[in-house]
Amino acid sequence: MKKTLLAIATFSILLTCCKTDNATTNKALYLNPNAPIEERVEDALARMTLREKINIIHAQSKFSAPGVPRLGIAELWTTDGPHGIRPEVKWDEWDQAGWTNDSCTAYPALTCLAATWNREMAKTYGVAIGEEARFREKDVLLGPGVNIYRTPLGGRNFEYMGEDPYLASQMVVPYVKGVQEQGVAACVKHYALNNEETHRHTVDVDCSDRALYEIYLPAFKAAVVEGGTWSIMGSYNKYRGTHACHNDRLLNKILKEEWGFDGAVVSDWGGTHNTDEAITNGLDLEFGTWVARKGGGNPYDRYYMAHPYLERIQKGEVGTAELDEKVRRVLRLTFRTAMNPNKPYGALGSESHTAAVRAIGGEGVVLLKNDNNNLPISAQAKNILVVGENAVKMLTVGGGSSSLKAKHECVVLEGMLNHYKGVANVSYARGYVGDVGGSYNGVNTGQNLNENRNAKELIAEAVAMARTADAVVFVGGLNKSDHQDCEGTDRKELGLPYGQDEVIEALAEATDHLTVVLLSGNAVEMPWVDRVESVVQGWFLGSETGNVLAAVLSGEVNPSGKLPFTFGKKLEDYPSHAGGVTFPNDGPTTYHEDIFVGYRGFEKAGVEPLFAFGHGLSYTTFEYSNLTLSSKKMSKRGELKVSVDVRNNGACKGKEVVQLYVSDLASSLPRPVKELKEFAKVELEPGESRTVHFTLDKSALSYYDDVQGCWVAESGDFEVLVGSSSADIRQRATFTLK
Ligand code: BGC
Fold first, then answer.
1. Helix, coil or strand: residue 664
2. Which residues are catalytic?
3. Do the beta carbons of residue 257 and residue 364 sit within 8 Å?
4. Is the pLDDT of residue 619 over 90?
5. How confident is the model at residue 26 (pLDDT cuts 50, 70, 90)?
6. How many angstroms separate the alpha carbon of residue 638 from the centre of ligand 1?
């Protein structure tokens, strides 16, 4: 009997060994690329030891997780995101690794992408950045970001896609698909309610479920449900008392149960704070936790989901069901990316990438104001003056984790000199001094922007030169240093920094041909707006900044960008600041403006913005006519077809973003005056006319009912409003929902 038992025991040990041995041969199911991913996941999971399972769910270095070396399960390498591929840092330090092959293409900031209102541009962006990530052997791209533009003081707004949930949803989906076609996972961030930098680890956000579902979640949901994102990053802030990186409601209930997310939840770097919550509340992969180096051993073992988790299991305090679920999700992510044998090879710094930067930038630049057809710069202009620090400053370095080491960055002055070579004389005056520094994490621009003259002298020089110039282009805005457009800090005021207003006012006195170009990811106050001829919102445009802006200013490219967020006249006009509400906040913070964010709030309060959501001019004009609805009635299961004719009335080719808003004429809950529900970008030759078609269903008419916990489309009358911006509605028609 004893012998038999011994034989059985030996046999089963042998079997286990065989299974383990097999693991490293190509016969193992999990290594078979043709086997369904779920079977590979279960097979790999069954072969892993407890320690290996613990290891795979947290980082081994600043940007990588270890995989399972014994089984040949690959490491996962992540990278920022979202505007280009971050240069390599050391294994366990933020310092530069000192590689010489890690410079990238710098793409326009996501605010610019959103301003294109062109889904194809989002796809182009995703493909291009995905190719660069792939070439650099990265598996997870930490982006895009889709937090809603709640306040113009938000330091990271430049990394996001504006104030409207529908626009952000429409733009995030193609970006995610484009990235993932390259075998690289998108990691959509920062989920959720990450609208402040100053106290980003301790602010504890609460908002109504209506605001959550109608405003703050739709873009994340679209990225999951329509975009099929393979990973998502939890945000730093708390939501209703618990950090978002291990928040049961956000992660388990909404993301995984309601939306069916099957990918991995990645913590933001240092966003994990509690082992027990991390175990049960839906976090799958822990990165960036700040653990003391002292204490010997491997510091990564001290992560919340490392030894502390292992110990709880070994002591029998928790089981392994949650662990297995996390491991499954990490394995799925690995098989979809690092261990996808069919992934493309990628490419870095290709002509197509430069073309993408130019195309996205060219379509994203917004012409805010253009009196007397001041732009494009007259072909007769022989003396063009460029003024301002942002015309010469490299803006791809700085701003936090999105900082880049670009292969090249063509600044505005360089672009203007390129464009006008042999055609006109382009001169330059500094105008103001902002931030003369230019380094982030050891990447230096190498620029020397030091200036000894004082503000008065700089203005006097610019004004004297402006008097004899045929065209004056002031290039200012914000930059990527603290309290500008920068992670980790928020802006302190809506106004322009560094005394730029005085420079602009002085230039406006000296010339009748003044264009103000603002490079920023945020709205700014413009006390001088009535005294300048043109205003251009130029965002952060990446590698081709100067070439893109020269093309727009000269008329080679006809601007077609539209604002993805409202420019208010003053800070208190923003719904999030109305009534003197303070920002930033530490601890409990209620989003008192509820669903009335951005234009929804401006319109409710009847406050006229400086430039409305969706606004953007062109060098041509468009006429709208013939709005037609397929029926005057719509059933709750039915659809409504909408068509409208758009004609290019001017003398040059141009693109127009046709925007469709819906207004609920009577409802039991307060609703915005109108909400964006569709848009299309069309290109028209002079004199050309096109019929643009849209289809609406009840989702375009619904609101989220907090009490019932579901979307409701109420019977009654609705109005369809079609126009060129939220404030420039050209056609209207009503219908009834039965
Ligand atoms: C940022 C993330 C970024 C991560 C890694 C964090 O501080 O919030 O957006 O992806 O660092 O650099």
1. strand
2. 268
3. no
4. yes
5. low
6. 43
Element at 17 (helix H, strand E): helix 2-23
Separation of CA 142 and ligand 1 centre (Å): 8
Contact indicator for 706, 210 with CB cutoff of 8 Å: yes
Closest Cα to atom 6 of ligand 1? 269
Q: Which residues pair with 68 in a beta bridge?
A: 73
Per the model's pLDDT, the better-predicted residue between 581 and 588 turns out to be: 588
Q: Ligand 1 centroid to 66 CA: how many Å?
A: 19
Condensed to tens digits (0 to 9), the pLDDT of residues 689-710 reads 999 999 999 999 999 999 999 9
Q: Where are the domains of the chain?
A: 364-564, 622-737
Instruction: Pick left, alpha or beta for residue 406 (phi over 0 → left; psi -120 to 50 → alpha; otherwise beta).
Output: beta
Ligand 1 mean position, distance from CA 546 (Å): 28
Alpha-carbon distance of 723 to 184, in angstroms, equals 38
Q: Which residue's C-alpha comes closest to atom 11 of ligand 1?
A: 269
Q: Dig out the tokens for 215 from the structure.
A: 């405003």
Does the beta carbon of 401 sit less than 6 angstroms from any atom of ligand 1? yes
| Mutational test site, ligand 1, from 63, 142, 232, 237, max ligand atoms within 8 Å of CB | 142
* pLDDT digit string, tens, across residues 621-676: 999 999 999 999 998 899 999 999 999 999 999 999 999 999 999 999 999 999 99
Tell me the pLDDT tens digit for each residue of 157-176.
Answer: 999 999 999 999 999 999 99
Using the 8-state DSSP alphabet, how is residue 118 labeled? -
pLDDT of amino acid 227? 98
Top CATH class of 622-737 equals mainly beta
Taking only the tens place, the pLDDT of each residue in 53-95 is: 999 999 999 999 999 999 999 999 999 999 999 999 999 999 9
Q: Which CATH superfamily is domain 364-564 in?
A: Glycoside hydrolase family 3 C-terminal domain (3.40.50.1700)
For ligand 1, is residue 142 a contact (CB within 6 Å)? yes
Cα gap 99→89, rounded to integer Å: 9
